[in-house]
Amino acid sequence: MFPWNYGFHFGVASYIFLGAFYTVLVVVATTILSALWRAHQDLSNSKAEDIRWHSDFHDLSAADRACRHVLTGEFKSRECPNAFDCRGCETHARLVAVHPPVAAAEAEADLFGMSFPLDRMYHRGHTWARPEADGTVTVGLDDLGARLLGTPDAVDLPEPGSRVQANGTAFRIHKREADVRVLSPVDGEVVETGGVGRGFFLRVKPLDGPIDMRHLLRDGEVKPWLMRELERLQLALTMEGASTPSLADGGVPVADIAAAYPKTDWDAVCGEMFLEP
Amino acid sequence: MVKQLDKEFITRGVRRCSTPRFVLWLTPWVALLIFGAYCAGLCLVKGLNQTNMDNRYAFGLWIFVDLTIIALGAGAFFTGFLLYILKFKELKAVINSAVVIGVVCYSGAMAALMVDVGQPLRAWFTFWYPNVHSMLTEVTFCISCYLTVLLIEYLPILLKNRKLRDIPAFLVFEFELHKLIYVLAGVGTFLSFFHQGSLGGLYGVLRGRPFAFREGILVWPSTFFLFIISAAAVGPSFLICTTWLVEKISGKRLAKDRVFDLLARISGILLSVYVLAKTIDTLIWINRTSPSLGFTASQYYDWKPFGTWILFAEIVVCGLVPALILLTPRLRAQRAWLIPAAAVACCGVALNRYVQTVQTMALPTLSFDKFLTYTPSWQETGTFLGVLAYGVLVYSFSFRYFQIFPEERELKIEVRPQQEEEPALAGRF
């Protein structure tokens, strides 16, 4: 069996056994060490947030991973292969070149009873980003996101000077049993923090060059996306045992949706809507 | 405080029972585990005189249980092989459950084996001073290695826990390890293939026991291959049974019908291959192997209660019948057929391992031998129950705190209409 065992003789059987045994050991050890090494490299290169998002994105249902061009009807069905980061997506670049986004008809868009101004761009995790004249970008929660959280119990904002990255955690909001991480729409360094009453949560300055916002929704893309989000909200509420009202009722979302569903697992609803399954 | 902490560890969006109810569920199993640990302790401290085994009847309840749960746990390697190597994507819905079952089965088997071997302080001798002529050595090495692989495969499930993944080091390690999981699935398949085979080979090489001895190919007796095929066949069936059982206990749907259907189809195909192979093997054994060793096959079945009924039950009732049900799309689509068929297939493999272990030992092989009977002592039974309780506890914790069935949240909506209540504030939205 092993050379140090009494009665051991080298032969075909021992070569096969020893070869297989040590191969297995080497493969298993290499796999573990490789995973540990790569994890160490990821941590050193501050990739944890990126990995968190990719892991979350992977756990979203197929319908929730739909490409933005499905929302506008350019594709019948297509899953986003880039975890909602269209900046490097060739398909997106090609489609935008052929069909540039339709310009906004009005400066202030009232969509389904909610305010979605078109002077800013929207992230699918319910944040918006508005470029300012001084080169910074203001980040806030969109109207649906704000209504989902109502008046938050607590908000954890990053310290000025810290960095945020697109699809990474921008800030955390606590509401009832829900502990929600809100995704950042842009990369940059936080220069100022706001809050619920100030109309914005973060002001971010670019790290180098202008902030790339090609991955965010704008103009004509907002309405179809929001329509789908309302459907997702209905589904999430239904899944969590709440009512199943439909927009055909003619109502508009109340200012504090959480308060309207006191018995619903709000953590699950927010997890669904803020893309944190 | 405890309730809040408990809730924070539960996967977002899935419903689990309240903390007190969970504690209530755990209590009898913990009691059984403590009783099992006491029994095992007695065997380890006082020796194997606590059992009803002796030098002549050296394999008893524990070995039978070991062989059975290792066969049933084969779902782990086989599902991993189908998902990661052959890319059966639908099986993603049950792979985590298969891994948990694998961990439970293999670690439970190792624990029982350690009590059986005794001398815990010298347990490492089996690795350092292996008996070069024993197939059990190959089994020990393969099972130890595979249990290690399973524990590594279990890590991503554990680290994906909602609270644990808040720690960046755990998050990135889980992510990177999961990317390499196909390597572990391949190694697991290789190891499982050999230790399932070696367990079968263990009996097939017993030339002194003509009831078990089999001819074969090169150094491998036919039982080597029969054990592999039967384990691969019932692994998916056991997965069907456990998923169904957890669905019933928790009152939730956990996997889509198409997943059950795929598992049933795979199990049915492999079970029919096994039945064919087992039939050919039995015919060769009856007509050639056994007579050449001086026994007619009928002699083995003169000793009651081991009549020919056991052979019929093993091949036809627990083999052919469930195989036909699982292969028939219309029948396997109905739970009333699917679950009994899968359960009977699992019973079939247990019966096969029982025959190989207990009947082989009981039958006389020499003219002055007597037919032996054996009933496990309460210490043996207690140890077995302890292993069972351990399995239930590990699975219960895994189900409560880890994402064992990824489709569970998606399927929640399909059962909701039955439980729907009047909304608190209807018409607000």
Distance between the termini of chain A: 50 Å
How would you sum up the global shape of chain B? globular
- Kindly state the number of beta strands of chain A: 11
Main CATH class of chain B: Mainly Alpha
Query: Multimeric state of these chains?
Result: heterodimer
Report the structural category of chain A.
alpha+beta
Write out key terms for the chains shown.
heterodimer; A: 277 residues; alpha+beta; OB fold (Dihydrolipoamide Acetyltransferase, E2P); 2 domains; six-stranded antiparallel β-sheet; 8 helices; elongated; B: 429 residues; mainly alpha; Formate dehydrogenase/DMSO reductase fold; 17 helices; 71% helix; 1% strand; disordered C terminus
Structure description:
The complex is a heterodimer of chains A (277) and B (429). Chain A is an alpha+beta fold and 277 residues long. Chain A is built from eight helices and eleven strands. Chain A folds into two domains: 1-45; 109-273, RNA polymerase II/Efflux pump adaptor protein, barrel-sandwich hybrid domain (OB fold (Dihydrolipoamide Acetyltransferase, E2P)). In chain A, the strands form three sheets. Chain A has a six-stranded antiparallel beta sheet. Chain A has a three-stranded antiparallel beta sheet with strand order 6-8-9. In chain A, a hairpin with a 2-residue loop joins β8 and β9 (178-183). The longest helix of chain A is centred in the first third of the chain and has 33 residues, at 12-44. The mean pLDDT of chain A is 87. With 429 residues, chain B is an all-alpha fold. Chain B is built from 17 helices and two strands. Chain B has a two-stranded antiparallel ribbon with strand order 1-2. Chain B is globular and about 70 Å long. Chain B starts with a helix and ends in a 10-residue tail after the last helix.
